Amino acid sequence: MIYSVSINGVLTDPKQASVSIFDHGFLFGDSVYEVVRTIHGRIFAFEPHIDRLFSSAQQIGLEIPWSREDLRKDVVALLKHSQLEEEAYVRLILTRGVGELNIDPSSCRAPQIILIAKALPRLPASAYTDGIVLSLVNTKRNSKHATNPGIKSGNYLNNVLALMEARKNKALEAVMLNENGFITECTTSNVFLVKDSKILTPSLECGLLAGVTRKLVLSRARAEGLTVEEGFFKPEDLVAVDEAFITSTTRDVVPVSRIDDRSLGVVPGPVTKRVAALYQDEVKKHLDKDCPLPHLAEKTQ
User: In whole angstroms, how far apart are CA 249 and each of 48, 58, 137, 164?
Assistant: First the structure.
């Protein structure tokens, strides 16, 4: 895997890239991050991702000493420098910075912004034609009254443990419940259920990340007259669904073929297929005008 790196706006040799072991992002997971991608060489939905980055930082009391436009310029510069021959994945990491060896953040004087670009990881084509497997795991999602899942922080241990459990169950993704037993989300994606042509997805009140793709799917589905319900769903609701799918920035809309031992019907189902098509249409409206990977844009013309 080839990586390109920028630290505090400075393009850096990936082999030489480093942060201090006293950075609180490393010591305590005291950081926030976002992931953006390119589609046809253009950055997709940059603004909502950066809005969420600033929101996450605000919620942990971390001031970002860069403007949104500064960050966009740095991402574009990194992508142009990367010379990637395929679509790109970019992680933006904002750390608390170097401080004393204790959890008090007041000793951290200078936040750091680290950008890492690589080729976009893709699921095999069969995932979209045949579906994926989900597993309802025992690892609970963080309570929104603790480390709120609405904050996209660098502390992902809870999700790591859930994914490990799902992989033991031979599933691609884990479905996590909150402390009250309601479905929340997967480890790096939002989950949708379909029953009697109605699209169901957990409410943000359940304690989950407000996914950018989730929001676009909900908005477009409602605009097209599809019935959508954001609510509180129990594990038994998984048993009764006709279809299911997950969404994320890097995966788009992915149908589900099985949830643990229960196989679903036709995959992808009719509602899932329509949502996926509507989402692809919606994507075109949210592509950055700048094209840091022009050779990819040329292929689509």
Answer: 11, 22, 23, 21
What single-letter amino acid sits at 9? G
pLDDT of the residue at 187: 98
Whether this prediction's pTM lies above 0.70 is answered by: yes
For residue 202 the two structure tokens come to 């957990």
The reported pLDDT for the residue numbered 265 is 86
Tokens 């419940």, located at residue: 177
**CATH 3.30.565.10 at 4-119, yes or no:** no
Q: What is the pLDDT of residues 288-298, one digit of tens each?
A: 988 999 988 77
DSSP state, 106? G
Report the distance separating Cα 101 and Cα 171, nearest Å.
39
CB 276 within 8 A of CB 60: no
Q: Other C-beta atoms within 10 Å of 108: how many?
A: 20
What are the φ/ψ torsions at residue 204 (nearest 5 degrees)? -60, -25
Instruction: Report the topology of domain 125-285.
Output: D-amino Acid Aminotransferase; Chain A, domain 2 (3.20.10)
Phi/psi at 58 (5° precision): -60, -40
User: Are the C-beta atoms of residues 257 and 263 closer than 8 Å to each other?
Assistant: yes
The Cα–Cα gap between 186 and 184 comes to 7
Query: How far is 168 from 177, CA to CA, in rounded Å?
Result: 18
Cβ burial of 264 (10 Å; 0-12, 13-18, 19+) is buried
For residues 73 and 67, give the distance between their C-alpha atoms in angstroms, rounded to a whole number.
10
Structure tokens at 56: 């996450």
Domain extents in the chain: 4-119, 125-285
Strand 190-195 with 243-248, pairing: antiparallel
**What are residue 57's DSSP bridge partners?**
none
